[in-house]
Structure formats: structure tokens, C-alpha cells
Amino acid sequence: MPSMQEIELKFQIPALALSAVQAELTALDGGHHAPLRLRAAYFDTPERALAHANMALRVRQEGRQWVQTVKAGGSNTMMRLEDNQPAKAPKAGQAVVADLDRHHGTPAEAALRAVLGWDPAQDPSGTATGLIELYRTDITRHRARVTVGAGTPYEGVVELALDLGHIHAGELNVTVRELEIESISGHPMAVIEASRDWVRRHGVWLDTQTKAHRGDRLARLASRSDTPPSEAEAEHATLARPARLQPDSTLDQAWRAALESCLEQISANMSELGTAPAVLQQTGYQWRLGLRRLRALARLLKPTSLPFPHAALAHADALYAQLGLWRDAQALAWLPAKIVRKGGPDLLLPYPDMSATHDEAVIALARSGAATTLCLDLLAALLHPPGDNAESQQPYRPWLVQRLGQWRTRCREAARHAGKLSEVELHTLRKRAKRLRLMADLFAPAWKPKRYQAHGRALKRTLDAMGHIQDEAVAEGWYARAAAEDARARWVQDWLHGRRRKLRRQANRALRDWRSVKAPW
Predict the structure, then answer these.
(1) % pLDDT > 70, the chain
(2) Which residues pair with 73 in a beta bridge?
(3) Which candidate, 79, 312, 363, 319, places its Cα nearest to that of 196?
(4) Which of 165, 286, 311, 479 has its CB 3.0 to 4.6 Å from that of 493, i.e. a possible disulfide?
(5) Which CATH superfamily is domain 3-232 in?
(6) What ranges in 302-422 are assigned the alpha helix state H?
């Protein structure tokens, strides 16, 4: 059982689609594979050293065989590193135990050494690392293998695996109802093409949260079983991270690293929202921010001939717009109470579409075919062969400095006349400045740290000031429409309009301060 790179995608199955998925998988298999019982114990340190490193260690019974596996994060959402080694069944009455010596001499050894502080010479089995069993899985797997894209350059054999069962930690358990699509041979694109088919016909949605991820979270909750649900339930938003770049990276390598960063933020938060968490404000915000970063990256790369998936932006644009009303409702939730404190009427925010402001609408979007299709399109782009022309192979940093320099010059010129800008023009400036900040952050490894941080702080203050104006302008429009049916809304409309002059002065000062700060490059 060699070390390898696992290429697979995992999808959650709507409850109403389960019967159809089971029936189709049974028909595709044609009786070649009996259902397989998979029972596994997962190990980590009490401090969750492996989980923090995006790794997992399990010992699993697969029918009559026992296998010990180390998994670690790969280059993107679709690829993970995996090392499988034969294990021995525990003796009757004894607990399952992980033995790190099984991974001695494999690529997994270096990762286990680094994360656990394991010294094979002094502690062959890893007893001193403090590994303990944290959770278990009990799954029944139904399988079928199919050929995808026969006769095309992307031909490949994939395994469809329907996993049904539970994850257990202490007294807690969660249901598993997943479809995994894994590359067995041929081109990795076969996984994506098979996925598109199942998404289209059965409404499955992408989930990048592994069983280990879900099990670790369940174990944490089980360890706090006496904590009130309101305190135990925490958000699990994934924040933006810079692209992983080297000083000598090419432009081809840079756009791929940037796209991987965007995809990670989009898919992780989308997957979290798909679980229908009780609290989702920050996760929803980070998902929308990930979409905004992707759109800004597309704008940055538009003048190039790089194989960036510009066609996929239609889905990103639609999702971003649909999340907009929900975001506005979150951002303006403070307003009704403040109006009352100022002596105004006690009115609810007059949302144009109340249903779009509910958390259920965000969850439905995360589970939508558009959200999953967007991620599949981005993954497909990352499988595109590296470019070998002069544009692709040029050093990325000079190109990036020139491109962002153009953006910054345009923003600074508009900021110089900030006091004369209309609200529409100011909003346009804010969108351009936001793109500048997002791309400066995405490519943070390229900049001088102190100048990058100073520029970022000044730009954030500017964006916050302009953002307050835009938020209140949106609210004013809502109340203006409401005033046609409720005269009390006119008071709020006038009050908001009267605040604008003060907010504009604050924004003008912030813009002036930002113009005096040097560029991060």
C-alpha cells in the first residue's frame, strides 16, 4: 500500500435524492462490489496537533483487512497526500492502537516528525507523542467504477463511493451521507466531469470538510458536553490567506497560487455553510469576501492571455449579488435602534426582499448547483497545463507592480478630487480601492512588510469611511421606498440624508491621509 496523491472530491447528498443515488450506483456497479463495512479510529494529540496541521491519522478495518493511513493537505481542494500501510487487527478485548513505525521510511514520516515531534530512533511506535483516540467512524460503502470521457484527452476511470453511516465522539454522533468521486487511473479531469454530471442530475453539493474535520469538531463538542449550546456553538469561518509564492515565481505560477487561495476560501466557507450552522454571520461574510477576491483577481488578469477561467465568473457574480442583500441587512442591523435613540420612529428595516435576508437563503445558496459548479470550474482551470510562452514565464513581481501601480494611480487621482465626487463616483472609487486592497493582500509575499502594513492600514480606514456612506445610502433608498406607504419612514430618510455631510468629511480626510502613504512596493 504505497504513498500516493489522492485525487477526489466529496459531495453531500440531499435527503430526497438519496434513493435515486443509491439506485443509480447499484445499477452502475452491476453486482461487482459488495457493500463494504469501514470502521475506523482516528488519533491525535490532546492539543490536536495533527488537526491544526490539516492532517489525519486513522486505523481502519476495511472488510477483513486493517489499514493505517496518514492524510495531509495537498495542492488544492481536490488533491490530498495519502500514505496507507498494512496494520494488524487488535487482539480480542484490546483497543485499536496507532503505530507510527508503520510510516517509517515513507513520505509521511517527515510530516509526522515535524508535527508530532516524533523521533523514530528513540520512540519507534510513537508512544511518547501522546496520541489518543478522539473519535470513530462506522461507514457502509457502496462502490462502482466507471470510465469518463472515453476517447478524449481527459479519459479516466473514477470510483463512485456512497458512504452511509455515522461519526461518533463520546455520547455525540453525526450522520454521514456522502458521495466521493475518486480518480483511479487516467486524467484527473475525469473526476471533475463525473462530478458535473452528478451535480446536475442529483443536486449533490461540494463539501471540502473531511470526515476527520467533522470528527475533530465533534470530539471538541463532546469534551464540552456540559457547556450550554449557545456557548459551545462557535463559528468556523475560513479567513483569506495570501498566495503561496516564491521570489522567483513566474506569472503562470502566481496566478495559479492566487486562484488556489481564492478557491480555498470560497470552498471552505461554502462547505461550512452547507452544514446549516446555527451561527453563520462571519462564515457568510468570508464566503462573500472570497467571491469578491476572485472577481478582483479576474479583473487583474483580464489584459493577459493566461488561461484564467473568466467564463466561470458569471456564477461568482450571481452568487455575490445574491449575498449582497443579506450582507446589507447584517451591516445595517444597528440602524433601527439608533433611530429610536435619536427620537425617530420605531420601524423595522424595510428590506426590499425579506426572504433574501434570512440565514436559510445563504445556506440554500451554499448548497446550490451554481456554487458547486463555480468550484468545479476553478479546479478545472488549475488542471490546465502550465504555460510555456514568454508572458507565462516572465517574473510575476514586475508585472504585478506595474498593474497594481496603474490601479493605485487611478484611485489616487480620483481621491485628489474626493470633495467634488458624486455619490455614484465615490462608490466607484470605493470599489476600485477595494480591489486594490484585496489584490495587495493576496500577493502580500511580494511586498516590503512595513510599507505593506502601513499602506494597508491607511487603505482600510479609507474603505471603512466610504463604506459607511454606501451603507447609509442603501438604507436611505430603502426608507425612501417605504415612505410611499408609511410616512414615518420619511423622517428616517431625512435623518440619514442629513448625516451624509459629516460622513463625507470623514471619508475625505481618510482619502487624503491614504494619498500621503507610500505604495507597498
Answers:
(1) 97
(2) 80
(3) 312
(4) 479
(5) Hypothetical Protein Pfu-838710-001 (2.40.320.10)
(6) 313-331, 335-341, 359-366, 369-382, 390-393, 396-416
- Cell numbers of 449, please? 512588510
pLDDT(295) > 60: yes
Cα 355 off chain centre by = 24
Q: Is the pTM of this model over 0.85?
A: yes
Question: How far apart, in whole angstroms, are the C-alpha atoms of residue 172 and residue 88?
Answer: 28
Q: Which H/E stretch holds residue 348?
A: none
**How long a stretch of residues is the chain?**
521
On whether the CB atoms of residues 430 and 422 are closer than 8 A, the answer is no
CB 21 within 8 A of CB 161: no
- pLDDT mean across residues, the chain: 95
Integer Cα distance of 214 and 207 in angstroms:
11
Residues sharing a CB contact under 8 Å with residue 398, sequence separation 6 or more, in sequence order: none
Considering only CA atoms, which of 431, 444, 183 is closest in space to residue 324?
431
Distance between CA atoms of 470 and 507, rounded to whole angstroms?
11
SS3 172: strand
Compute the CA torsion angle 199, 283, 457, 422 (nearest 10 deg): 70
Sort strands 172-186 and 65-76 into parallel, antiparallel or unpaired. unpaired
Whether 234 has a pLDDT exceeding 80, the answer reads: no
Give me the residue spans of the domains in the chain.
Answer: 3-232, 248-394, 396-521
For the chain, what is the radius of gyration of the CA atoms? 26
β-pairing, 55-62 vs 132-148, is unpaired
Q: Is the per-residue pLDDT at 517 higher than 80?
A: yes
Closest to 160 (Cα-Cα) out of 306, 33, 277, 300:
33
Q: How many CA atoms lie within 13 A of 295 on its CB side?
A: 19
Cα gap 338→487, rounded to integer Å: 19
H/E element, 350: none
Query: Which residue type occupies 166?
Result: H
Query: Residue 174 in contact with residue 143, Cβ under 8 Å?
Result: no
d(CA 207, CA 263): 13
Q: Is 206 exposed, middle or buried (0-12, 13-18, 19+ CB in 10 A)?
A: buried
Number of H helices and E strands in the chain, helices first, is 17, 9
